[in-house]
Amino acid sequence: MLDHPRSRLVLALTAVPLLVVLLGACSGGGSKTPDRTAPAARSTASGTPADPNATGAKDPCSYVSGPEVQSATGKTVSGDPIRINDFVCRYNTSEGVINVGVSRPVTRERFDQGVQANANGQQLTMIADLGDEAFAVPFGVSVFKGSASISIAVSPSSAPTGGDAAITLARLVLQRL
């Protein structure tokens, strides 16, 4: 699926703020190893995501389920979610991909740097009533809440900001932080 130019762009847009976070964590002097989660902890049989805090895991695929992605986007989700790394989960759909990224802990400064990198020189639109601070970015949204950064990228998007689907998915993630 990464052969499609938009798929590569969406991965890049989701990964940039996460790369900023990783670079900041690497320079922080700590030697904390990221938590890993077994695939079985990703979702329950009902399609509801497993509690991401039940095992202390931070699997990005545990915040929203395939059926929830399908409901929010109106696109058929094909196959299981794919854990790209410790921060990003990909859902392949009938029309493209949805990337859900969650990073913690993140400072507001690192979040802002990531959002600006994603803006690619474009004017950003703030989104009211979503986390502590949220912006529409190309193909989706970036949200800061407490010490968490959430990035939702919808490709192809039906609107320049990824529309309501990205906001709906961000709200689900926020409920489960």
What is the chain-wise order of helices and strands? Answer: HHEEEHEEEEH
Strand % is 15-25%
Could you report the average pLDDT, rounded to the nearest whole number? 74
Question: Could you tell me how far the N terminus lies from the C terminus, measured between alpha carbons in angstroms?
Answer: 29 Å
Number of H/I helices: 4
Number of strand elements: 7
Low-confidence stretches: 1-46, 50-57
- Portion of residues in helices? 25-40%
User: Oligomeric form of this entry?
Assistant: single chain
Please outline the major beta sheet.
7 strands, antiparallel
How would you summarize this macromolecular structure in one to three sentences?
The chain has 177 residues and is an alpha+beta fold. The protein has helices at residues 5-27, 66-73, 108-119, 163-175; strands at 82-83, 88-92, 97-103, 125-126, 133-137, 140-145, 148-155.
Task: Give a written overview of the molecule.
- The protein is an alpha+beta fold and 177 residues long.
- The protein is 32% helix and 20% strand.
- It contains 4 helices and 7 strands.
- It has a 7-stranded antiparallel beta sheet with strand order 1-2-3-7-6-5-4, with helices on both faces.
- A hairpin with a 6-residue loop joins strand 4 (125-126) and strand 5.
- Helix 1 (5-27) runs antiparallel to helix 3 and helix 2 packs antiparallel against helix 4.
- It is globular.
- Residues 1-46 and 50-57 have low confidence and may be disordered.
